[in-house]
Amino acid sequence: MKKILLAALAAVILIGYPLSTYPLGVRAENASRAWVETLSAAVPYFRVAKNDYRRSFLKATHIVELEAALPGMDTPFVVTMQNEVEHGPFPGFNSLGVARVTHTLVLPAKVQQQLAKVLGDKPPLSAVTMLKLGGGGSTRVTSPAFTYKDEKGEASWQGIDGQMDFSKGYERVNYTFAAPGLSARMVDGSEMKIGKISATGQQEKIAQTESLYTGNSTVTVESLTASSGPQTTFSLSNISYSADLRLPVPSFLDVSGKVAAQNIKFGAEDWGTFEYAFSAKHLHLQSVDAFGKTMREAYASSARRGQSAQSATQLQTTMLDAFKKHGGTLLKNDPVIELDRLRLGTERDYLSMNGSIRFVGVTDADIKNPMGLIPKINARAEIVLAETMLTRIAGKASSTLGRNARGSDPATAEAPAGNDVLPMVNAQTENAVAQGYIIRGGGTLRSTITYADGKLSINGRTVDSMK
């Protein structure tokens, strides 16, 4: 009886597994082909030159050849991806899922030979995707660490490790990425170091759009240092970029972003921090999506024709046509673009700026004649410069001029005195203050510039009335 049960179980497995693995193989093929379509749509400069999927019983091989027609390239650059697909429900008989896909980047022979000097027999990039039974999946991307040394110097790269999780149809995508860093040192003593790099993101596709996602993404670099010889010439830390897209109300998109860096130093001089924050609010969702689709199709069409890129005239025409078709609805819904903050410097020495621009009372006639939009602009900008920062910049200009003069002809050149530039800058500043272009007070120089109803004003006075 026991032998009969074992035989029956074996028969069920032999019959049942082919019945289950076949539809999963079909699902794996559909998912692989959909991925190629998603890639070519997201990166319009790529043209799919080959999409060869060969499916067998337990596995398949998927060859994807992409031609990258980038601007300025006379000959398209070919990228080949070979994907080895192991069918479920037990891919490779050591996991559970629809399929496991191992991605391999096939590089030209000459490139492989050069990389072999650094990596040996290790692939430069490895990626494995697991397609889940319930839909969606995850992709793990890794790159090996290496140290390379030759007669010019040595470099050390700590590798990368990334993970992307995605839902069915890529409706939701979450990712993390980390690279411990890079260092390089030349025999002349010059050196560059990049600290830990990391990135995270969570995105969700907006319903009834082709390629718009809400969510946020962040990229950070721990530090960057570049030196020439024993003395550090440039360094900064805590470099970051972040972006956020939201739908605060139905049918309208808000976008914001920020770039920042701290401890900016040139030599021994501390230039403080840099911060740039921007936002665009109340963007009509369908207009943004339609405009983006039009531009992607224009670039993709250029790539399919084997052109490196559209000519400037063609691109300008395409953008103008897209604006006339979709820009009316976008502008008539009162979008606002803001420079929330632009600041460079320390607490004492700094330059800062903020501003906004919007269009008021736009009509269909204005869209047909874009020059008619100029009087509809309502814009404002405020600029503040600490006088100590101005003095510092003028002093650096004097020093630079001196070095350039001495270097141009050491035998005859004379360096200008260190205070040559500063009196000239102070005289120009005094003149601007007297004419009302600048307001001086509290150790700062300030200007508020507005444009409304077709009139330009500075510090509350129209430009025509200023003398």
Task: Give a concise summary.
The protein has 467 residues and is α+β, with helices and mostly antiparallel strands.
> Based on helices, strands and strand pairing, what is the structural class?
alpha+beta
Shape: globular
Number of strands: 25
Query: Roughly how many Å is the radius of gyration?
Result: 30 Å
- Share of helix among residues? 25-40%
Give the topology:
Layout: H1 2-42, E1 46-55, E2 59-68, E3 77-87, E4 99-106, H2 109-119, E5 126-131, E6 137-143, E7 146-150, E8 153-157, E9 160-166, E10 172-179, E11 182-186, E12 191-194, E13 197-205, E14 213-228, E15 231-249, E16 252-266, E17 269-270, E18 273-284, H3 285-304, H4 312-332, E19 336-345, E20 350-359, H5 364-368, E21 377-386, H6 387-408, H7 421-435, E22 439-441, E23 444-452, E24 455-458, E25 461-462
Antiparallel strand pairs: 1-2, 2-3, 3-4, 4-5, 5-6, 6-9, 7-8, 8-11, 9-10, 10-13, 11-12, 12-14, 13-14, 14-15, 15-16, 16-17, 16-18, 18-19, 19-20, 20-21, 21-23, 22-23, 23-24, 24-25
Helix pairs in contact: 3-4
If you had to describe this structure to a student in words, what would you say it looks like?
The protein has 467 residues and is α+β, with helices and mostly antiparallel strands. Helix content is 29%, strand content 44%. It has helices at residues 2-42, 109-119, 285-304, 312-332, 364-368, 387-408, 421-435, and strands at residues 46-55, 59-68, 77-87, 99-106, 126-131, 137-143, 146-150, 153-157, 160-166, 172-179, 182-186, 191-194, 197-205, 213-228, 231-249, 252-266, 269-270, 273-284, 336-345, 350-359, 377-386, 439-441, 444-452, 455-458, 461-462. The protein has a 25-stranded antiparallel sheet that branches. Helix 3 runs antiparallel to helix 4 (312-332). It is globular, with a radius of gyration of 30 Å. The protein starts with a helix and ends in a 5-residue tail after the last strand.
